[in-house]
């Protein structure tokens, strides 16, 4: 009897391990396929259907990508938007969150309502586009950084974080003659380095991955970040539904794969840091403010 | 000298406020850039919604363009495209709730059964990754795997004796592809909140249930799943509340003339009508319809969350 129970327990355990292992496998296999295939030749790809280890190792696709200027430039553009955009995000988010966390600020309930309401209702794509246009931001990098300078959600999480700092710190700093600006950057910011790092990573990933804003606001192809080029190369030339006449300019499959790898590498590089922080970040949200 | 006629205590109140403002001047300076941001980039566009009731002419601007009442809305509701958009939105959202929503719950339940720490951590690390890929990258990966020109999936189908399927260029497959993408990107990431809920379950409950003779399956059902119940309810209601938000980036990157009929939703339609064709007022009306339904759904969802005895979101 006892023995049988152990048996069934081990069998269910086995099934659970196998099931979860296959889910984990499915999560990385598609991307893994792309990476492996990007390092082989077009010829081998046509001959073999499934390549786990390439017979012929080739950097052709990467050489091709980096020999032209457009992808290289777009990587620079993406890097610039990510770095500058994240700095703007952090500056706007932390200053406003700090002020909203202080009881001395009058009307902070009203301001909070103004913020929260934007999470519920929005003007939408076209009115926002028209505002950006009226501000003469179209075809400038401001257009992809300023219109989402603050994420209302992150702002509220950041404010909750500041609210949880001990009140005595602020009081004693005031006694020492600090004003709120000095308290903000001498006390509040250094004490929340971990939280700020989390937000910085999330904002950075958002900027690097952003497709819609550059697509809407940047029509000059010299200004395109890598995500837009990726779409041009991988999707617009797909043979499944485009005209046959287009076929001459279709980039080879390995080039498409290489572009995907290049556009994703930065994300994979920061992923270990994000992973360290995001559970903490998710917990921040649960603290009552 | 009009202020001298003001009642004494009113003046005193003003002076107090002025003093409060002066002693905390930096707080106000710190909060102003944020407020200006919200006013310009969130509230100005909301005000811009008036062009849904006008015939917007870029040369006349927001205010001087002529009013047309609800003409654009009438045009939207009488348009055959409206039924198509509504049907697509409804079906894609429904697919998400039926085929995506339960998956993170199941994965979290099973992860909780794992005693091998290293295995659990490895699985978690791997299944969170796709969440950080951009929609363009995800669509790109799907294009390459599902293409008829030597894609991995069609190779597999042919290997097992089937004939290859044009997944990308046929309307029958597009909704399944979109659901698969969502599943692949977020099923792992979605487990985080459930796993967090599981950690708050009192271990004594498991002991008590064991003493009562509960087997493994009963523990999973009556203790773990029961402990996740409120999280499940909240997330389900939120999912329904966001039923209009299917994501421009995902769908736009999978759309093409051959599958548009089955996958075009409000966001993508607004882009084509507004930015590509320049019908600013008409597309704003569509966007406004979408946002309004969204607002009603979210408020309704929040009401329901509270009704279930949970803390609402606001």
Protein described:
The complex is a heterodimer of chains A (289) and B (314). Chain A has 289 residues and is an all-alpha fold. Chain A folds into two domains: 2-47; 68-284, MetI-like fold. Helices cover 72% and strands 0% of the residues of chain A. The longest helix of chain A is centred in the N-terminal third of the chain and has 37 residues, at 2-38. Chain A is globular and about 75 Å long. Residues 242-249 and 284-289 of chain A have low confidence and may be disordered. Chain B is an all-alpha fold. Chain B has two domains: 2-64, no CATH class; 74-307, Orthogonal Bundle (MetI-like fold), CATH 1.10.3720. Chain B contains 17 helices and no strands. Chain B has helices at residues 8-23, 25-48, 61-64, 71-78, 80-100, 102-113, 117-128, 135-146, 152-159, 171-186, 191-199, 203-211, 216-241, 248-254, 260-263, 266-276, 280-307. In chain B, helix 4 (71-78) packs across helix 17 (280-307) and helix 11 packs across helix 13. Chain B is flat, with a radius of gyration of 27 Å. The two termini of chain B are 46 Å apart. Chains A and B meet through helix 1, helix 4, helix 5, helix 6 and helix 10 of A and helix 1, helix 2, helix 6, helix 7 and helix 8 of B.
